[in-house]
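Contributing new records

If you add data, match the layout below exactly. Sequence lines come first and carry their own label; structure lines follow with theirs. Keep one chain per record. Anything else will be rejected by the validation script.
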Amino acid sequence: MKTILIATKNRGKAKEFDEIFKPMGYQVLTLLDMPEDLDVEETGETFEENAKLKAETISHYFGIPVLADDSGLIVDALGGRPGVFSARYAGVEKNDLANMEKVLLEMKEISGNDRTARFHCSLALALPDQNTITTFGTVEGYIAEEPVGTNGFGYDPIFYVPTHDKTMAQLTSEEKNNFSHRHNATQKLKRIMMNLFNKEEGHL
């Protein structure tokens, strides 16, 4: 069986991609399954650059296909921030509460329709000796006045989704996964992969 590595330690995230690659004869692994823990510094200026950097670096090291993602929050009134710095916006790696508090403070004087924002996800699939495949997905919304909801992670409690009249953190995982930025990017990738699979008669 062929192998593809998802550049994450989150098995739940890898499970989402298992649905894409398993029908094509791929075994899906995560970084938790690998003998070495590679730490790839995200020096890119865009989500796509960071995703490609992670995927290509790890793929070159292990010699197998690697899928990586980079995601974050883009707030229009903040000039696109937090952007690629979403996970460490408050200066501390992955402190969700501190990150949300900083965004809310910076948005204190911004009201109503000027609080537009979007979640963005870029995916990069690095294949040995082939060009890297990239896709992206977004979901539009607004920055809420205060955190609401307990589900999800990151900025979900302050990201209001008008189509559902709830914040991301008020949605169930199933509801969120049906339209999220990662879902949209993944569906695009799935279509590309299936086309390649069909054209090359099962060989990528």
